[in-house]
Amino acid sequence: MLDRGPGIPEPDLHRIFEKFYRIPVPEGASGTGLGLSICKGIVEAHGGRIWAAKRDGGGLRIAIQLPL
Length: 68
Description:
The protein has one helix at 35-45, and strands spanning 2-3, 49-54, 60-65. The chain is an alpha+beta fold. It has a single domain (2-65), classed as Heat Shock Protein 90, CATH 3.30.565.10. The chain has a 3-stranded antiparallel β-sheet with strand order 1-3-2.
């Protein structure tokens, strides 16, 4: 998955998969901090892995790898 949002600071990339972890965002944006944690649980339950990386030109890339 790719987006062109403001991105995430490098030190926070591994933390975004923790339950209830939220990056400070501009007013009006909200979330529970559960979405990526749930995704991680599902992917790992199937023997896969999920990770995040900064995207060239801004934004974020979330990738998953599942065994065949």
